[in-house]
Amino acid sequence: VRESRFWALHLLSGAVLLGLLGIHMTIMHFDAILRVVGGAHEPVLTFASVVARDRHAVMRVLYVLLLGFALYHGLYGVRGILREVWDGSAAAWVINAGVLLVGALVFAYGVGIVVRAGRIAVLM
Amino acid sequence: MSTTEPIRQPAGANAVTTQADAATAATAQTGTGVKVSVARYAPDHDTGHRRQTWEVRVTPGMTVLDALFAVKEAHDGSLAFRCACRMGVCGSCGMMINGKPRLACNTQISALGAVIEVGPLPNHDVIKDLVPELTPVFAKHRSVRPHVIRPGDGEVEQPTREFTQTPGEMLSYLQFSYCLKCSLCLAACPTEASLPSFLGPQALAAAYRYTADSRDQGLAVRAAAVDALHGVFGCHLAGACSEACPKGVDPALAIQLLKRTLLFGPPHRTPAAVVPPLPEGHRTPGADSVPKAPPPTV
Q: Does A86 touch chain B (CB under 8 A)?
């Protein structure tokens, strides 16, 4: 795949992250304001609030998207820095493979947690 | 009169000159002396760069290149530097002058301080004194296929007619065709300093110059070299290349335009057409008034 495609996705992920982080910040950190305007009923860190969010399929999808785009955006930057520090085709292969492996593992772990939390929340 | 002092640098390292305090130094006046301090390196006996200083009498219109010639003629004939045209056209005399990459023939002594520090271009290996190794620069230049590419090389190798191009189409790449290949932009580039495999602003601007040419259809071929992390996507957007260019070329702009071209295709959607052949026996109006060339003498 050409580098321009990775770069375009890097820009796209940055733009999407602005929206996703906006939603995350609004829900998790501006909850006091949300309660004033009637958007939330209790503090976000109570057990009931966490279970309610995990039960919501849209929230679970948003979490997975946030994880995926944030991982891609961050790891693309890390890859660029590492490729500049260690030049050469062999180093490029190792760095690309390493970054891909780390990204896949962290993404799988994160998705696994979201899925498990959703299952538990639905059963409660 | 000359003084020599060693500069502690490891062998083979690029030369780094310290910037003269131009703000406090008096501007060189005609008839007065100016100190020319040169970072020297002779590969057969030097392990690193050493700095040698001479005093040169300033003459009207004197350039740094003139001062180096004055040193070479009157003080030290072994001083090595490159030059050819002496008028900012060939790009041979690129060097660091008071901490900035400049053309020596294009830099007036009167615009500098009383002490002029001269060194070889950074980000290049040094052959001797002020002579940088430019072979890797030209290798990078060639790697982007800096020529018009058409499908099937027949018309390019054996042209039979012209390709049409409007003045507007020519303006889209004109400034990038002024590049001298003096390598000042590579000397200024911070990415080039940390990533030697980076193609560099010169080659990337050349790639855009031909990609933006309406006669060219070689984006896919050229993308193999430039659409990479060591190609356009290695650029840190410092813009130092554009500031350093003595011809006013903006390689930083070319790199950004090349990124856009790689994503969305070349600016010209329809390639230049080949001019249709003229009818048999056609004579261009006024062609009869053009005198014939004289017969060859050799």
A: no
| Closest-approach residue (CA) in chain A for B223 | A2
> What's the complex ipTM?
0.81
Residue B262 to residue A4, Cβ atoms within 8 A: yes
Decide if B195 and A84 are in contact by the 8 Å CB cutoff.
Answer: yes
A109 and chain B in contact, CB less than 8 A: no
- Give which of B117, B116, B88 is closest to B103, Cα–Cα: B88
Cβ neighbours of B233 in A, within 8 Å: 3-4, 7, 80
Q: Does A68 or B30 have the greater pLDDT score?
A: A68
Spatial distance between the Cα atoms of B220 and B205, rounded to a whole number of angstroms: 16
Q: How far is B210 from chain A (nearest CA, A)?
A: 19
Angle at B129 between CA B125 and CA B131, to 5 degrees: 55
Q: What is the DSSP letter of A124?
A: -
Helices B219-226 + B200-211 axis angle, to 10? 160
For residues B31 and B45, give the distance between their C-alpha atoms in angstroms, rounded to a whole number: 36
Residues 6 or more apart from B50 whose CB is under 8 A from it? B4, B5, B6, B7, B39, B40, B41
Containing B38, the helix (H) or strand (E) segment is strand B33-40
Q: Do A3 and B194 touch (CB under 8 A)?
A: no
pTM: 0.81
Q: Check if the beta carbon of residue B117 is closer than 8 Å to that of residue B20.
A: yes
| DSSP-assigned letters across all residues of A24-42 | HHHHHTSHHHHHHHTS-SS
What does DSSP say about strands B126-128 and B131-132: parallel, antiparallel, or unpaired?
A: antiparallel
For chain B, which residues lie within 8 Å of any Cβ of chain A, measuring from their own Cβ? 191, 194-197, 223, 227-231, 233-234, 259, 262-263
Of B194, B227, B263, the CB nearest to A84: B194
Please give chain B's pLDDT, 298 residues, in tens: 555 554 444 333 343 334 444 433 445 666 688 999 999 999 888 888 899 999 999 999 999 999 999 999 999 999 999 999 999 999 999 999 999 999 999 999 999 989 999 999 999 999 999 999 999 999 999 999 999 888 877 777 777 777 788 888 899 999 999 999 999 999 999 999 999 899 999 999 999 999 999 888 899 999 999 999 999 999 999 999 999 999 999 999 999 999 999 999 887 667 667 777 777 777 767 767 777 878 888 7
- Between CA A10 and CA A75 the distance in angstroms is 10
- A87–B263 CB contact, under 8 Å: no
